[in-house]
Amino acid sequence: MKKICSLVCMVCVALVALSQNLMLDQEEAEDVIDVVGYFCKNDSMTFRLIQQEYEIKGCDTTISESCEKEFLIVVTDSTSKGYKMKYVPLSFKTLDDNTDDGIMTSAINKLMMSEECNFTTDELGQLQSIDNWREIRDHLKKGVKVVCDSLYSNISDMDSIMSRKEFEKMLSLLLPSDMESIQDSYEELTDLFGIHGSVFDIGDQELDSEMNGFPQHRLVRIGYTAVEDEENDFDGDYAISTKSTTLIPVEDMKDLMGSAFDVVSIIMGMANESLDTDSLDLVRDMIVDSISAAKPSGIEMTTSEYYRFFLNGWPKEYYYSEVIDMGIEKRVEARSIEWIKRNWNIYFREDEDTPEHREI
After folding, report:
1. Distance of alpha carbon 33 from its chain centroid, rounded?
2. The dihedral sign for the CA sequence 108, 109, 110, 115
3. Is residue 169 domain-resident?
4. H/E/C letters for each residue in 58-73?
5. Which of 36, 106, 208, 236 lies in the 20 to 30 Å Cα band around 23?
6. Which of 7, 34, 52 is nearest to 123 (CA)?
7. What's the pLDDT tens digit per position in 292-344?
């Protein structure tokens, strides 16, 4: 029952947060920052990604997921129409390898680690498509057996949770099967190359709007960053940060829960399990009553994003967090990406016939 409640709450928030874009009104302004990638063939950068999910109840914090991976981005071709790039997985580890969730996360990510991803950006550096998505899809389908071998040999009561045959069937249905879903599975590529081509007004902005009918307050700060490290910072590096707070009133929770339960029912059906209507109504009322008592104003969702770029448009740092405050507890998802190594083609003098390649 506890797992069902958690799943329902997360689905509710997902239904609300279908689109949290950074894009602002693209009006002409005198002082603006253009996010443009000036890349060269054979440029490469290595990044480290850390992702965590945890719950906070009073003074207690429980980490439900924690993983770290490193990957390499290489520019394989540069044309007037855009860039061809390659994503090369380097390493992956979870900080909770001994838990059931950790074993499952590790098994699925090891499958993803064994395949490189070729992708294309436009001439400004914005992600456009995954070129070898069919090969990735076929690789994932073939890897279902390997994942199941790992799970059913390392999780002692896995058979009691779900038969292997049914789990393989469900996992196959959940795997990405088209270019869009394959691209969604490489979330870090959108984090790094998703806003290239955008133009932002320099300065601070405070905006009040709505997201899917719910009131939202947003703070935006855009500008150039200071040179603090002469070896790794450049005059012209810039950053974009946003923080938005959305309030979901308690009186809207029951309708939202209805949509969430539809999703949960589909998931349970895929596992050949079912929940009767009375049980679903009981869980819904229990969650809504608990939230109403602990936080009468409703669920508060705070989303923060921070983008930092080198002056040539290569991503330098990315941070994302989502905090869902339900009064009875807070659920936090945090994801950070930072560069750890770069290898660029750099032109030192205008009179040089060929560029000198230097690792910096």
Report:
1. 24
2. positive
3. yes
4. CCEEEEEEEEEEEEEE
5. 236
6. 34
7. 676 777 788 999 999 999 999 999 999 999 999 888 888 999 999 999 999 99
Q: Are 250 and 214 in contact (CB under 8 A)?
A: no
Strand partners, 245: 217, 302
Q: Is residue 285 part of a domain?
A: no
**Is residue 149 assigned to a domain?**
yes
Q: Which residue is associated with the tokens 């930092």?
A: 308
Q: What is the number of domains present in the chain?
A: 1
Q: How far apart are CA 350 and CA 360, in angstroms?
A: 20
Task: Identify which of 102, 90, 99 has the alpha carbon closest to the alpha carbon of residue 188.
Answer: 90
pLDDT in tens, 156-173: 777 777 788 887 777 777
Give pLDDT tens digits for 196-255: 999 999 999 999 988 778 889 999 999 999 999 999 999 999 999 999 999 888 777 666
Helices (H), the chain: 2-16, 100-113, 133-142, 144-154, 158-161, 164-174, 179-185, 187-193, 253-270, 277-294
Phi, psi of 125, rounded to the nearest 5 degrees: 105, 5
Q: Which amino acid is at 336?
A: S
Asked if the structure places residue 316 within a domain, the reply is no
The boundaries of the domain holding residue 102 are: 39-50+64-197
